[in-house]
Amino acid sequence: MVFEYALPYFFDEGATMYSYRLEGDRHLNKWSGWSKETKKELSNLHEGDYTFFVKARNVFGKETVPSAFRFKILPPWYRTVWAYLFYLFVAVLFIWLLIKLNTRRLIKEKERLERIVKERTAEIEQQKEEIQTQAENLKESNSLLEERNEEINQQKEEIQAILDNLQEAYESITYMNAELARANEDIKKTNKKLTDSILYAKRIQFAVLPSENFLEKHFSEYFIFFKPKDIVSGDFYWFRELDNYLLIAVADGTGHGVPGAFISMMGTTYLNEITLRTDLKKASDVLNVLRDEVANMLKTDDDIESRDGMDIAFCALNKDTLELQYSGAHHPLYLFRDGEFTIIEGDRMPIGLTRREKDFTNHHIQLQKGDTLYMFSDGFADQFGGEDGRKYLIKRFKQLLKMIHRESMEHQREVLENEYNVWKGTFDQVDDILIIGLRI
Which of these three, 33, 58, 74, is where a domain ends? Predict the structure, then answer.
């Protein structure tokens, strides 16, 4: 594209100077230097809207008002929408062809392997027949072996030497077995000491757990389904009566076994201390302070965020008004009233080190006589089992509670335990299990 321009000023035309710029192009957007050239060739312009400006300056240095010419460069055919759609169609067609070719290749490979299996099976059958034939030949060879007894007697001295060597090896092995037996006995003693220590820790942990008399005193019905994976548990429950409030918590500490038990003991200790503070007025306040205490305990110099800590469901029930405050860390609260099922979700953050430092939500629920509440850890839903070895999952757990929530609490506990044992079958228990049901 060539622009030609001129100034109709006829006095000393040769001294007239011109300057131009091209709006829309980042390289030519500024005014060019003054030049006597009366044309400008533009090439390699990208598609878009442009405005070409030119101004002149006569021999006396007087500049004219810039003149403008607007034009538009259309994209080449290979950058049009139709071109891109065509590219997309070609790409999809290419991928489809690759899939078809690969599928055909896999089918042929499968047929080849099946042929190989059939051939190998035939070879094995043939080898089996050969082995049977050889066995019959061996029986015939036994008679020949009897004739060679004389040769064997000549080799007796060599065999005796070998036996002597074997005797020495046997004595060495016997000595090593004795050493291994002593080491095994030491291991058994050490293991017994560790087991005794863990059993003692179990007695301590269960002694710290609150008595069920608390629930029997304040609720018309209840059940506790508590099944640790190991001797000691990372799951724990906690109760306290404070003024006219009943405080109830169900928590799931990180891990299980001895590490989980340490977390559970720490959680119990902190709950006992925190709930005695007079400045905490809401259930969520307890979780906020508990998170700070646990985070301070678990924090190390090089940890930005640790997975250690606990998930918890915490309730504060006013005995006089039946108003319930609920706050949860990952754990929800299930409520059944007159056949209707309500889920009060906990916040998606743990009690421990976390980057999401926001306050826990405080839920208010006005309970009624006959309401049924469930608090639980995730061990039941995470158990592998069934015919396919899959997880039980929370969806199936909800359906089970919907079926049995009208039954007596004792019967519900029996149903839950039986359902768990049938589902688990021969699979190992994967986590601690804790479910508490309360009927107002």
Answer: 74
Q: What is the CATH number of the domain that holds 378?
A: 3.60.40.10
Q: Is 392 helix (H, G, I), strand (E, B) or coil?
A: coil
C-alpha to C-alpha distance for 345 and 341, rounded to whole angstroms: 13
Token pair of 83 as six digits: 């071109």
Q: What is the pLDDT of residues 374-430, one digit of tens each?
A: 999 999 999 999 999 999 999 999 999 999 999 999 999 999 999 999 999 999 999
Report whether 228 contacts 302 (CB < 8 A): no
> What tokens does 172 get?
């060495």
User: CA nearest 419: which of 437, 438, 433, 440?
Assistant: 433
Altogether, the residues listed in the chain come to a count of 440
**3-state class percentages of the chain: helix first, strand second, coil last, to nearest 5:** 45, 25, 30
| Closest of 313, 325, 251 to residue 281, by C-alpha | 325
- Do 197 and 403 meet the contact criterion of CB atoms below 8 Å apart? no
Count of domains forming the chain? 2
Separation between Cα atoms, residue 32 and residue 29, nearest integer Å = 9
**351 near 312, Cβ under 8 Å?**
yes
Q: Supply the CATH number for residue 59's domain.
A: 2.60.40.10
Percent of the chain with pLDDT over 90: 48
Residue 181 resides in a domain:
no
Q: What is d(CA 360, CA 366) in angstroms, rounded to the nearest whole number?
A: 20
Tell me how many degrees the CA angle 406-393-337 measures, rounded to the nearest 5: 25
Tell me the C-alpha distance between 270 and 256, whole Å.
19
- Sign of the Cα torsion 203, 276, 331, 238 reads positive
Structural domain boundaries enclosing 27 = 2-74
The two three-digit tokens of residue 102, written as one number: 């690969």
CA distances from 319 to 29, 241, 322 (A): 79, 10, 5
**H-helix or E-strand spanning residue 323:** strand 323-329
CB 383 within 8 A of CB 435: no
Residue 87 lies in a domain: no
Burial-class residue 76 by CB neighbours within 10 Å (0-12, 13-18, 19+).
exposed
Judged by average pLDDT, the poorest of 210-214, 232-236, 310-314, 409-413 is 232-236
